[in-house]
């Protein structure tokens, strides 16, 4: 597998083989396949997790520790009544 890209010299043999396999399947040169993979990886938006979303909401509304303490003090901690199946 000859290539003009210096990057390919540092790839493991298994990575080179996989890149060559994908290039053949997609009918691309190895260089074009590598560029497509890199572009796809860099253009894919990162999915935000629940905790990140919650933190963003807190920052947006400028929630502070005193707000959280107030919410905690107002919570009803009485256990829920169990359901009855009669």
- Mean residue pLDDT: 87
Low-confidence stretches: none
Distance between the termini: 74 Å
Give the ordered list of helices and strands.
HHHH
As a percent range, the share of helical residues equals 55-70%
Task: Summarize this structure as a short list of keywords or feature phrases.
86 residues; mainly alpha; 4 helices
Characterization of the model:
By secondary structure, the chain is mainly α. The protein has a domain at 6-43. It contains four helices and no strands. Helix 1 crosses helix 2. The protein starts with 12 loop residues before the first helix and ends in a 12-residue tail after the last helix.
């Amino acid at each position: 597998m000859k290539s003009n890209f210096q990057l390919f010299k540092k790839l493991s043999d298994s990575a080179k083989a996989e890149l060559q396999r994908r290039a053949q399947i997609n009918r691309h040169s190895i260089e074009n396949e590598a560029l497509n993979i890199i572009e796809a990886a860099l253009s894919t938006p990162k999915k935000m997790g629940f905790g990140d979303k919650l933190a963003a909401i807190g920052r947006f509304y400028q929630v502070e520790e005193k707000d959280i303490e107030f919410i905690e003090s107002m919570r009803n901690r009485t256990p829920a009544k169990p359901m009855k199946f009669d």
